[in-house]
Write a structure and sequence with these properties.
Blueprint (H helix, E strand, L loop, with lengths): L6 H17 L6 H9 L5 H6 L2 H14 L15 H16 L7 H10 L3 H8 L4 H25 L4
Helix pairs in contact: 1-2, 5-6, 6-8
């Protein structure tokens, strides 16, 4: 199911599962995916969107909203319907961005678009799916322009 996902995106899902299990929740919700995404601190997408202080505040808000139960020992936690929707739309977003693989950026864009805790937190910190998509589109366009310049500068065989 996750063949097209980059290693970083798979790690986000794995970390989301860890966050859900830690809270004793029997399934992975979108806020767990967001926490998994935030733990990918090397990810340039996050530095594009939030400061370290905002990331810490988002993590605190999500953890405060969780009703902790005993930690789950289940090896395989299912994805919630909202989570499945984020992953499905994330795949569509990757295609729209002309990315062959599904990385963390499309997942973040879809997390910000979807209703629920992550979207509310994104809006509370000044970020919406539309604003994030605008930045991602500009970045994709500039990457495309750099690729075109590189191809133009390279000697043709």
């Amino acid at each position: 199911m996750f063949e097209r996902y980059t290693e970083a995106a798979r790690r986000v899902i794995f970390l989301g599962r860890y966050e859900a299990a830690k809270c004793g929740i029997p399934y992975i919700e979108t806020e767990h995916l967001l926490l998994g995404l935030l733990h990918q601190d090397h990810e340039p997408t996050l530095r594009l969107l939030w400061s370290e202080e905002a990331i810490a505040a988002v993590e605190t808000q999500i953890n405060a909203a969780e009703t902790a139960g005993p930690a789950s020992t289940a090896v395989d936690l299912p994805l919630s319907d909202e989570c499945k929707r984020v992953l499905t739309y994330g795949a569509e977003e990757a295609e729209r961005m002309r990315h062959r693989h599904i990385g963390t950026e499309p997942l973040l864009l879809e997390l910000l678009q979807q209703a629920g805790i992550p979207c509310g937190l994104g809006a509370a910190s000044g970020w919406t799916g539309a604003l994030a998509r605008s930045r991602a589109d500009r970045r994709t366009i500039s990457e495309h322009a750099r690729d075109c310049l590189r191809r133009a500068a390279s000697p043709h065989r």
